[in-house]
Amino acid sequence: MLNQNQTPLLDALKANAARPHAPFYTPGHKQGEGISQPLTDLLGKAVFRADLTELADLDNLFAPQGVIQEAQQLAAEAFGASQTWFLVNGSTCGVEAAILATCGTGDKIILPRNVHSSAIAGLILSGAIPIFLNPEYDPVLDIAHSITPHAVESALQQHPDAKAVLTVYPTYYGVCGNLSAIAHITHQYNIPLLVDEAHGAHFAFHPELPTPALTAGADLTVQSIHKVLGAMTQASMLHIQGNRIDSDRISKALQLLQSTSPSYLLLASLDAARQQMALQGKMLMSRTLQLAEEARTRISQIAGLSVLEMPWLGESPGFLALDKTRLTVTVSGLGLTGFEADEILDEKFAVTAEFASLQHLTLIISLGNTPADIEQLVQGFTTLAKEYRRTNLTVKSHLWQDLFTTQCHALCCSPREAFFAVSEILPLIETNKHICAEIVCPYPPGIPVLMPGEVITKSVLDYLQQIQAKGGFISGCNDTTLKTLKVLK
User: Fold this and answer.
1) Which residue from 297, 278, 310 is spatially nearest to 2, judged by alpha carbons?
2) Tens digit of pLDDT for each residue in 326-357?
3) What is the pLDDT of residues 356-366, one digit of tens each?
4) Cβ neighbours of residue 457 under 8 Å, at least 6 residues apart?
5) Less Cβ around it within 10 Å: N or C end of the chain?
6) Cα 25 to chain center, whole Å?
7) 235: which DSSP letter?
8) What does the angle CA 438 – CA 443 – CA 449 come to, to the nearest 5 degrees?
9) Minimal CA–CA distance to 270: which of 94, 9, 6, 5?
10) What is the pTM of this model?
């Protein structure tokens, strides 16, 4: 057992920030002396004194042998991994590295169609061929959930030469599929299970939270420590266990994807967040769960609103848990779209959600929230229901279902081939039945509706236009106004 009280990287950074010396190395602001006054006024000088480069005492992220190595070993023990890598380019680079480390050009990888855009980037970088699975779908709420064990087993029977399976656990809405069953099926083919666990970094620290991906049998998992724990934005971790994944390939992939000038502020925040959870995690998560339960109970009692509970979609082993710190509120009963409700809550009541969709608002309740936050949230929803109710909302049902049933089998070439192919830009109304040459997704949550290599269909165009008309934001594509799209020539 390692001493989880220790923070080797944080301590080394603190010592170097306080050491009197004449700096003749990057960054150019030289421990804050060259920072503009407005930025100093905002952040103070202390943060810049600690904004250091790879000095002798601070180790090297790409070849750690000192304090970074020690900090990563402590993190591996705390999160239940055999080896851990610190990520300064977010979980995005971790998901990309996972695909690069397991798949080459022409290799098949099985994954859900509602993956994050980082997985599509991994396909483009690696040249892997995606075998997309339809996620289970809730037709009442119009929410896509996880893939099921049965879907994975069927895909592997049809594609036994697949090199890996990738899944999302939990989804953006906090729903957790039966990962243990998926791991068991995947391992029967002696291939690794990769997990995008960006929103599940807290699972290891409380028994009332869903089972962590590694405990469920994942070979690799990527976690955004900044999303639900106490690290700085962009700070994440990649964990592996077992022998199905070559750790050297992970390291080499991350060298391609991560900055050679990593921020030690981000790295030290990972060290500190790990110590915080290792020592106080259960207490912090107990308090977080209590706050979440209070919000869930009170909001569910407001007329016109409902909250997402554990889905039941017919395949009882398919879904095992719901992360109760993730709160999705359906607002369509008020005659409002999620985008409208989000804008009202933000502007009128200073309540800001994680993201909005056509019918819902999704909120993250974490260790940083307070009872006052919950009170403000509940009062905001209470007033929203009383004063902003409408009766004229019309939202097309089954949007996600329409998209996935038409899109999952419409990949005409690999995402990499399409990305590098000769393309042209056409008016949106002329792109139906053309092959897409770019990533197009409402953001957040960053799930692509179109990707390079997919056939553009009328249902996709209708969906994107409805999202935009209702106040959503389209990202990833060259023209975010959605007047044009890039297609293969």
Assistant:
1) 278
2) 999 999 999 999 999 999 999 999 999 999 98
3) 988 999 999 99
4) 406, 407, 410, 432, 433
5) N
6) 35
7) -
8) 45
9) 9
10) 0.95
